[in-house]
Design brief:
The structure is a single chain. The chain is an alpha+beta fold. The protein has 4 helices and 9 strands. It folds into 2 domains: about 50 residues, Luciferase, Domain 3 (Luciferase, domain 3); about 100 residues, 2-Layer Sandwich (GMP Synthetase, Chain A, domain 3). The strands form 3 sheets. Strands 1, 2, 3 and 4 form a 4-stranded antiparallel sheet that branches. Strands 7-8-9 form a 3-stranded mixed sheet.
Length: about 160
């Protein structure tokens, strides 16, 4: 099961003396904002920032895992995955994809990428919506501006 990581220790986050304290410290536990998977042996495996987790029809889907699967396809130059609102599932996996030169956008490519992801990760994690774009929104330092894609998905 994937869940939020919370840690506790002698120092914690006592330095947070502002409004963030209410969100990130609960009953003495520092809530990190990261989602982890714990295996049967008690080992933890990082999945994503909790902001990047997509909950679709009750499944927890880590956006970076779907991005990694898409990036394995030779037609994909870069991509970003978000959770888009969906009346039936709560959210769906939506991918924004920049294709490599010479690759053709269209329904056939959408199906090809969806099928590829289904074969690469658990089938329920595939992007139900794919938008082809020339570039992804980034800051001046190159960091992906996922919030812009999320805003676009709600329009």
């Amino acid at each position: 099961t994937i869940g939020k990581l919370a840690v506790q220790g002698p120092t914690g986050c006592r330095y947070l003396a502002d409004e963030r304290q209410k969100n990130y410290v609960k009953n003495g536990w520092n809530v990190t904002g990261d989602a982890y998977l714990m295996d049967a042996d008690g080992y933890f495996f990082y999945q994503a920032r909790t902001d990047d987790m997509i909950i679709s029809a009750g499944y927890n889907i880590a956006a970076p895992e779907v991005e990694e699967a898409l990036m394995l396809h030779p037609a994909v130059a870069e991509c970003a995955v978000i959770g888009a609102p969906d009346a039936e599932r709560g959210q769906i996996v939506k991918a924004f994809v920049v294709l490599r030169p010479g690759q053709e956008e269209g329904d056939a490519m959408v199906k090809t990428l969806q099928d590829f992801v289904k074969q690469t990760v658990a089938p329920y994690k595939y992007p139900r919506a794919i938008v082809f774009t020339d570039k992804l929104p980034r800051t001046q330092t190159g960091k992906l501006q996922r919030f812009k894609l999320s805003a676009e998905a709600t329009q």
